[in-house]
Amino acid sequence: MAAANSSASSRPVKMASDGLWQGENPLDFALPLLAVQIAVILVVTQGLALVLRPLRQPKVVAEILGGILLGPSALGRWSAFHLTIFPAWSAAALDTVSGLGLLLFLFLVGLELDFGAVRRVGPRSVAVAAAGIVLPLLAAPGLVPLLNLAVPASRHASFLSLCVFLGAALSVTALPVLACILKELGLLGVPFGDTAMAAAAVNDIFAWALLALALAVSGGGDGGHENEPKDTPFLVPVYILASGAAFVAFMLCALRPLMARLARRAGPDRVAGLACSGVVCCALLAGVVTDAIGVHPVFGAFVFGVCMPREGGVAERTGEKVAPLVTGLLLPIYFATSGLHTDVDKVHGAAAWGMVALVVAVACLGKFGGTFAAAALTGVAGREAAALGVAMSAKGLVELVVLNIGKERKVLDDTTFAIFVIMALTTTVLATPLMTALYRPTTSAADADDVSVELKAGNDGCPA
User: Fold this and answer.
1) Among 33, 387, 397, 445, which is disulfide-ready with 464 (CB 3.0 to 4.6 Å)?
2) Cβ(221)–Cβ(157) under 8 Å?
3) What is the Cα–Cα distance from 224 to 228, expressed in whole angstroms?
4) DSSP 172
5) Domain Cation/H+ exchanger transmembrane, which positions (predicted)?
6) Distance (Å, whole) CA 385 – CA 171
7) Which fold would CATH assign to domain 94-221+233-440?
């Protein structure tokens, strides 16, 4: 089998085989192998989701654990399995499919951001989000020297870019994960849930601005290509930031009003026919534009989703059509591929595992401490403020986006990537039981029906 894979990698990969009767193994060809890979990923991750359901864990936990189980940390040690199901030559196709799922999901996240909730809760949500970001961000410069001592590695990143990436990874809150946890606990629509969702929405905006800054100061690393120059001109980060700001300004100030005007003129019937295909096409092209700028394509899709007009039900119809495919198929592939890229064996030795403990502590205490202090100062009761601190510590989607981009840009090495994936898993696993212990709402059936902040686009499960 190893010889077969070697021969497959030495020639252009064909889409499909001519069949076993003509002596060709379908798993040596791109489409049949991709189908098998997706099937294996879905079976493993959905099976783990069923096992973890009694613990009320979000599906992202099962999906990342499934990828780790299939990757070099577990089944990937078995060379026959690795060379047959996940050979190196197939990585590009699987990563591309998972990246497409991520781009579309970030578009949906932007589509579902409820700015009305931010306005309703007011300054409290902004204060909570800002406080939860500042402390972890300030801790990042102190972590970088310790990381260099505990995990010495050749990193293609400056001190500043590494600080910004680590700060982004430590300070983010996963809005979709938090929404799913709150839905599981019956907290959507109550004041606590409104505050948490609004703060997470503000946090998402801060996180994407921070990620754009990280991408700019990293200068693209070495691009992963040996023939590309590794030194970035000094002004390139300035160009990237200026171009990104101009893109956001154009989307918010020009494109959003134009789309709203067109939606009103076209009417709901004509909009319904064009919404899905046209809007998805624009989201993909927005990703292309930000990639050309030097920022990751998911940022463009996210901004386009935020800018989508809510008039005429365009956003809602698009979400209803796109979400089932993305959350049911493409997004689990993305999380699983993150797990496949995680080699826990890279974290070895007391110093490295000590770094894991330190990173988890900084991520939890930084988010919890800042959020708790801001919530308490704005009049939130003690136990509720503590539960809010735990809620804002939930990681998941945005965390993995930051980590994967950092790895692509050669800012994060394999060991650092594994350390932060472990941190993301730990904080997400702890969120539900700690919130359940800290906050027990007493809501009536009428209150449960009056949900002002909810999961849209059919996300009734816990996709992220």
Assistant:
1) 397
2) yes
3) 8
4) -
5) 47-434
6) 18
7) Na+/H+ antiporter like fold (1.20.1530)
